[in-house]
Amino acid sequence: MGNDLPTTRVSEVELSAEVPAERVTAGVHLITVYDGSQDSNGLPLTVHDPDSRIPVPLSPARSEVLKNWLPQFKWNGVNNVTQYQIQVLKGSSQIALYAVTPQSAGCGEGLECSFISTKVLGAGPYRWRVRTVSPAGYGPWSELAVFNTPGKPAVAPVLTAPVSGDVISNWQPLFTWERVPDALSYRLQVFRGSTAVVNQIVTAQQAGCTYTTLCVFKPSRMLGKGPYTWKVQAINPSGAGPYSLPGLFNTPPAPASAAVLLTPAADMHVPGWQPMYEWLWSPGATQYLFEVWRGGTRVGALWVTAKDAGCTADNKCEFTPGVVLGSGAYKWRVLAVNPSGSALWSNWATFITPSKGIPAEKVTPLFPLNSATLSNWQPVYRWQGMLDASRYNLEVWIGSSRVLAKSLTPTEAGCSAGSTCSFTNTVLLRGGTYRWRIQAVNPAGKGPWSDWQSFNTPTKTGCGRSGIAGGGQSG
User: Fold this and answer.
1) pLDDT digits over 259-310, tens only?
2) CA 149 to CA 88: how far, in whole Å?
3) Which of 232, 321, 458, 472 lies at a 20 to 30 A Cα distance from 120?
4) Cβ pair 351, 438 in contact under 8 A
């Protein structure tokens, strides 16, 4: 191995020599063996960098079967390496290749290195090996170690509820089944006839059975009229197990009886144009379709849930729609509905809204009044609410220019009959003298304008005048 290395005479094909490490360089060398009379052929000898010794896989090895699909690789650490490469194979295909520093593997020379796979494996078997990386390059791969992952679930889940034709209390059932060992998720299928209406993968965590024996899950889909069947299959990264035996259940039936209307009815004269409607609760109904007609024309059709109508067992439902009617004779009806279907329509009920309902009285302004001087440029307008008003028209003028025209419902003005209505405009006025008025309106027409009321805003401040941009509408 060089002219200055010692010569050892042998009579066997095996040979050995102790040579100081500092006298050996990495690379390929030739060994010449003498038989006493002639030279043999030169024999190649490869000397590796002593800093790149081959690491030894510790675990998993020897066809070990893991407890999960994220193996923790362990090997012995070597000195003076910058990285380790871990290769995972399935058959002859590379599944993963990791680059791991000694620091992240928590090891040094003579210590155990450890790294947890970031890739979820599937069904085994697998092989893995490790090699070093140093400034001199890649070291040789270690021997391959063999391991296996857990098998796919071996047993079918056992369904616990609903089963045996149970009639459930709603249309969004809670499904329960027994946990299957080694299952990480479950496929839940719900059928109506031969049609799958739910086909969902549910993790063990979502079903609350990662560590408990009973899995529980409620799909978000609302079911309709039954009957239904359902089944569950346990799944893990190695595959899917057998399906459970099917469970049978039914949803509640459609409402059996039509709604009974209470008021308004029998040509009742209602006091306004937006009456409140009342009817008796229909057992099993979750919502109602509400219709109002005038002659042969439907003027309103709205859905209202039993909850929004305040319906409870043996109690009445109440609903005031956002439809403002005109003057005349009307009829209305209600259809009780749930996800399984509907009952018959209720009988018609009739009522009459005021036929001469144009507001006759002037609205009473409350503030600002009598040339009041305000402290800012954004007044709050207040007036007395009226029984027969469904809207209010508000105007503000300066000189011959209208600077504000607003139409407000009683709700927007925060008032009802006899209470105080108010409105605050978001646009600042200029300094000056203004006048304002208010008018009550309903479907029958417009009432008279109130008397004008005047007020003054500050004419200037230390920072100058504030005001609205541009001019108003001349009157």
Assistant:
1) 999 999 999 988 778 899 999 989 999 999 999 999 999 999 999 999 999 9
2) 13
3) 232
4) no
| 227 cis-preceded (ω within 30 degrees of 0) | yes
Contact indicator for 56, 128 with CB cutoff of 8 Å: no
Query: Per-residue pLDDT tens for 238-270?
Result: 999 999 999 999 999 999 999 999 999 999 988
Here the tokens at position 257 are 């009886």
Contacts of 297 (CB under 8 A, 6+ apart): none
Distance in angstroms (rounded) separating the CA atoms of residues 76 and 97:
18
The rounded distance, in Å, linking the Cα atoms of 214 and 348 is 51
Q: What is the pLDDT of residue 157?
A: 97
Cβ pair 299, 325 in contact under 8 A: yes
pTM over 0.70: no
Reading phi first (left if > 0) and then psi (alpha if -120 to 50, else beta), residue 92 is in alpha
Long-range contacts of 297-306 (CB under 8 A, 24+ apart): 299/323, 299/325, 299/330, 300/325, 306/281
